[in-house]
Amino acid sequence: MSERPFMQLYVSDFVGDTLHLSTEQIGAYMLMLMAMWNAGGTLPDDDVKLSRVVRMSLKKWRAISADLLTFFERASGEISHKRLTKELRKSLVKSEARAAAGALGGAAKALKTRGEGVANDSFLPEHLPESRNQNEKVSSENAKRFSQRQPPSENAEHFSQRQLPEIAQRSSGSSSENTAENARLSSSSSSKKPPAFARPPGWHRPKTHTDAANTIIEEILNHDRSRIAAGDEGAGRDVLMLPAIRAR
Q1: Is the pTM above the cut of 0.70?
Q2: Does residue 42 contact residue 36 with C-beta atoms inside 8 Å?
Q3: Within its chain, how far is the Cα of 86 from the centroid?
Q4: Closest Cα to residue 52, out of 32, 71, 30?
Q5: 248 vs 244: CA distance, rounded Å
Q6: Which of 15, 24, 112, 158: CA 20 to 30 A from 179?
Q7: Domain 11-88 indexed as CATH 1.10.3720
Q8: Quick one: which of 53, 49, 10 has its CA closest to 31?
Q9: Helix, strand or coil for residue 44?
Q10: Among candidates 39, 67, 62, which has minimal Cα distance to 50?
Q11: 88 near 37, Cβ under 8 Å?
């Protein structure tokens, strides 16, 4: 594509200036103007080359060239056109201005994009070796604290085979005492009434199925206690009818 994609044509002036030319001469004149525009403003002052520009034989060109060459200026073996040269300079100035504006716009856009990239990079976390080591140290300390809160392992694995008979003998000797103590604790615990359900300040409806089941059972038990106090023989059966919601 040419650097000058269009040529300004003042129709009124062109028609007025070419009234004395024939149709064939007007066609040759237009071809010369367009060739001169694409060539940068000049054509060689040579009949052979000009005949090729206007697409005529050399004889035909020489027959009509006298009237056409009056529109051109001849100097240093070249011909030029005053009006075409003026318009060509205007076109070059506009083209250079647009190119400069485009370059400035591209540079401004590149700087803006680069600035946004730098701003975004400043918000990215920096994973330095020191920060990774610190995180690993904190995780290790947390794991150590958690392990210290765990219940101790079974004591049986710490006993040797030599200690087992002694433990068995002591256990058999105190079995009767343990049985009596367990019976006493069982009777005392059975005589105690379960604590009444009370809603603490800020109580909210339970969010899990287990909490909901425990809440319903406690409410039924409280209701049965009031019925027992009133002498109702059917009290205590409501919970047995709801096995599916018993807390596990």
Answers
A1: no
A2: yes
A3: 54
A4: 32
A5: 10
A6: 158
A7: no
A8: 53
A9: strand
A10: 62
A11: yes
DSSP symbols for 233-248: TTTT-TTTT-GGG---
Find the angle CA(105)-CA(107)-CA(111) to the nearest 5 degrees. 115
DSSP secondary structure of 66-78: HHHGGGSEEETTE
Q: In one letter, which amino acid is 177?
A: E
How many C-beta atoms surround the C-beta of residue 166 within 10 A?
A: 10
> Whole-angstrom Cα distance, residue 106 to residue 22?
51
238 phi and psi angles, rounded to 5 deg: -65, -40
* Separation of CA 122 from chain center: 17
Q: How confident is the model at residue 84 (pLDDT cuts 50, 70, 90)?
A: very high
What residue segments make up the domains of the chain, in order of their start?
11-88, 209-245
Q: Is 59 helix (H, G, I), strand (E, B) or coil?
A: helix
Residue 227 has pLDDT above 90, yes or no: no
pLDDT digits (tens, 9 = 90+) for 52-64: 999 999 999 999 9
With DSSP H G I counted as helix, E B as strand and the rest as coil, what are the percentages for the chain, rounded to 5? 65, 5, 30
* Cα 153 → chain centroid: 50
d(CA 206, CA 214) in angstroms, rounded, equals: 9
